[in-house]
Amino acid sequence: MQSLPPTARPDEAEQSIRVSLQHKLEAAGFCVISRLIRSMSVDQASALIGWLWRIFARHNARHGRALDNLALAFPDMDEAERQRIALGMWDNLGRVFAESFLLDQIGREPDRVDLSGAEAVARLAGSGRGAVLVSLHLGDWELASQAAMRLGLAPAGVYQELRNPLVEAHVRAMRLPWYSGGLYKKKRGEDNTALKILRHVRAGGAVAILGDLRDGRGVEVPFFGKQAWATHFPALIARSLGVPLIAAAIIRTKGVHFTAKAVEIPIPRTTHRDADVLAATAEVHRVFETWIRANPEQWFWIHRKWARPGERATD
Fold it and tell me: Residue 145 contacts by C-beta under 8 Å, 6 or more apart in sequence?
């Protein structure tokens, strides 16, 4: 039997073994789910998983949080309508989960995403200019990079690394083909990713960032009539490098069919950089709010968007 390193206590070694076993079990479950979903057609898998999430997710504690956030955003809406929207949100999230395993198949059927509403992105293709695309958790946000590539851009992506390294490898492999500019991990306190993104955009590339979730280190902007925390990173990059800032969304129309939306956000360029960035970030959220109000059942209502800095963003 191999002896423990001198610095390792037996309880630490046992914890390491348990974590490793947990990772393997989670990865095995992930692979089973992947095979089951990929055994179905795109439409079947999306509809089935969406239905299952609609039925079972309402029993999750986050369902109550979604209802609370809906009450905050729509104070005059009755309880029945908020329940309808919350259940629709779970259906959409289940569909996004299933579709994430089928990105390659969706990519082979370009007619599933109507790009006619994304002229702001199309104008960038071939211009040689860099760009910042800021999207939100609406419809199927995983398809935004596919749409950008179809329009001729080479998007780079920034994402939060999963805790399980085995599942992380699988998920990264599924997403990487749709980020021809690279896929970078977001790590707290590390500037390397930010530098890579800056170099990519400065060289004429595009970066795709999800910008609708709470960021206690960011700025406060109006959102559904209340002050909400938002990341100012997309506007800061665009303002600093002098490139366009594009708000974009992939909105579900019916089943696994979508329409792409894109709007260029004006960026003030005064002598007060922070004020310029704040104004651009507020405008991004004004556009986001317009899209969410038109499709409330497709947004991510379970996040603590309006939480105060000392509160946890998720639990």
Answer: 155, 157, 175, 178, 179, 208
* Per-residue three-class SS string for 83-138: HHHHHHHHHHHHHHHHHHCCHHHHHCCHHHEECCCCHHHHCCCCCCCCEEEEECCE
DSSP letter for 3, please.
P
CA distance 231 to 285: 10
CA dihedral 194, 248, 287, 73 (to 10 degrees): -90
DSSP 3-state of 156: strand
How far apart are the two ends of the chain, measured CA to CA in Å?
Answer: 40
Please name which of 59, 227, 229, 250 lies closest in space to residue 138, comparing C-alpha atoms.
250
Each residue of 182-231: pLDDT tens digit?
A: 999 876 555 688 888 999 999 999 999 999 999 988 999 999 999 999 99
In angstroms, the CA 255 to CA 111 distance is 13
In terms of DSSP bridges, do strands 245-252 and 219-223 run parallel, antiparallel, or are they unpaired?
unpaired
**Three-state secondary structure call for residue 47:** helix
pTM score: 0.89
In the three-class reduction of DSSP (H, G, I as helix; E, B as strand; rest coil), residue 222 is classed as strand
Residue-wise pLDDT for 252-289, tens only, equals: 999 999 999 999 999 999 999 999 999 999 999 999 99
Q: Which residues contact 78 (CB under 8 A, 6 or more apart)?
A: none
Bridge partners of residue 227, in order along the sequence: 222
Query: Is the C-alpha dihedral spanning 55, 57, 62, 66 positive or negative?
Result: negative
